[in-house]
Design goal:
The structure holds two protein chains of two kinds.
Chain A: E1 7-12, E2 15-20, H1 30-45, E3 50-54, H2 63-78, E4 82-86, H3 90-98, E5 107-108, H4 111-118
Parallel strand pairs in A: 2-3, 3-4, 4-5
Antiparallel strand pairs in A: 1-2
Chain B: E1 2-7, H1 11-21, E2 27-32, H2 35-44, E3 49-53, H3 61-71, E4 77-81, H4 86-94, E5 99-102, H5 106-133, E6 136-141, H6 148-161, H7 167-189, H8 194-199, H9 201-211, E7 222-229, E8 232-238, H10 264-272, E9 275-278, E10 284-290
The chains are: A alpha/beta, B alpha/beta.
Chain lengths: ~120, ~300
């Protein structure tokens, strides 16, 4: 994806890997939103069904990131797709646990494990 | 008077550099003959800058750079490079050294390089010392999303400096503060619901843009105060919106609400702070973090 500043997007076979590379803050800034919209368009246009979110570069995240996860997950669910998260920080794991999101998605230690989980 | 540590295993070169630096009346010079002695002296008394040779027995200049960067991040390092050591100098710069001076040009460049770096470093060192004296701070914020990250970053440093809690708990506090600031700006002052963000992201952004420049939204401000006294941190965030009824928020962990966007921010605030209470109208939240509880053992 060209001109990406906030997310690095990679493909590993049929798995799309999204990796936020900096804290996204309130996610209300236009630049972040534009990039996010392009990712969602990409997922729809390419009928992506397997997505891994690699959070290795984020120390923490908040409710806005949780909401973004739900948006991706809902789109994937429509096509019976799969979603997994990996490389989550200690506080990040707490946040996923508090939101009970660790009950609905695999939270993997490594990217390789997450890719396996969505295949 | 700024204190400069000169590190070189060669007594001749050490004397030469000290002689050059002593031309500046603002510098007090301390010397060390290798990296280990340099680290000991940095621990023994505060230094404002380090000038070091690259090639030394024992801990060399490159290893010294790594140690100083990790243990004394506010102290800049100037390398003295001999012919043929350019590649190591590049590695040292990548590792965090501030500048380098070829030994062949010491007499022309060392004083000017040290004075320029000291001017920059002293300002930063003074700012950090001032931050360490701070026990309270307050902000009046416009409804600008771009301001949230810098404010949280400042508060992170504040929490660290006042030693309210360890690093992990500091991050937890920052998560709660960011949620509260988001709520105050977007839900409080601009009166925009999370539901809009979920169902119509573009409409959400459009609303933010529109309301940021029209009355009564644009005049509203967020007031944030942070203070640490008597073993706890108190954080108060107030917006100028109409407030909300905290009791009507759905439980976001109820399986039927897992996909809904409302209530997660408040849940994180309540989990990561020790006390969270709203005023009657719901436009001011007071959050407390107790220092005694804010350790790793909390888990």
């Amino acid at each position: 994806m060209e001109n990406a500043r906030f997310f690095v997007i990679e493909k590993e076979g049929e798995v799309l890997i999204m990796a936020p590379v900096r804290e996204l803050g309130s996610f209300a800034e236009d630049e972040v939103r534009d990039e996010w919209d392009r990712i969602l368009e990409y997922i729809e246009k390419n009928q992506t069904r397997r997505v891994v979110l690699d959070l290795g570069d984020l120390h923490y995240f908040g409710s806005v990131m949780l909401e973004m996860m739900v948006v991706v997950w809902k789109r994937l669910s429509q096509s019976k797709g799969k979603f997994a998260i990996c490389n989550v920080s200690k506080v990040g794991k707490e946040i996923l646990h508090i939101a009970k999101f660790d009950t609905i998605w695999p939270i993997c230690a490594t990217r390789a494990e997450a890719v396996q989980a969505v295949l | 008077m700024a204190r400069v540590l000169v590190v070189d295993d060669s007594p001749v070169d050490r004397t030469l550099v000290c002689g050059l630096l002593k031309k500046s009346p603002h510098l007090e010079i301390v010397t060390a003959s290798d990296g280990d002695e340099a680290i000991q002296k940095l621990h023994a008394q505060s230094m404002n800058l380090v000038v070091t040779d690259l090639m030394m027995p024992g801990m060399d200049g490159l290893q010294l750079v790594a140690q100083v960067v990790s243990q004394f991040p506010l102290v800049p390092i100037v390398l003295m490079t001999g012919q043929g050591s350019e590649q190591i100098a590049v590695r040292a710069l990548q590792a965090g050294a501030a500048s380098y001076v070829p030994k062949a040009q010491l007499s022309d460049l060392i004083v000017e390089t040290v004075e320029n770096l000291l001017a920059m470093a002293l300002e930063e060192q003074t700012n950090v010392r001032l931050m360490e004296c701070m026990s309270a701070c307050s902000f009046t914020l416009e409804n600008d999303a771009k301001i949230i990250a810098p404010v949280i970053s400042f508060l992170h440093r504040f929490i660290h400096n006042v030693r309210l809690c360890d690093e992990t708990n500091g991050i937890r506090v920052c998560v709660a503060l960011e949620e509260a600031l988001n709520n105050a700006i977007f839900h409080g002052n601009l009166e925009i619901s999370s539901d809009i963000r979920e169902h119509d992201p573009k409409g959400y952004r459009r609303l933010i843009s529109e309301r940021s420049v029209i009355s009564p939204y644009q005049e509203r401000r967020v007031f944030l105060s942070a203070s640490v006294h008597d073993g706890y941190g108190r954080f108060i965030i107030r917006d100028q919106g109409p407030g909300f009824n905290v009791g009507v928020l759905p439980d976001p962990t109820d399986p039927t609400n897992l996909e809904r966007p409302r209530g997660r921010g408040l849940l994180l605030m309540r989990t990561f702070m020790d006390e969270v209470r709203y005023n009657q109208s719901g436009n001011e939240v007071t959050m407390l973090k107790y220092a005694a509880l804010a350790t790793e053992s909390r888990q």
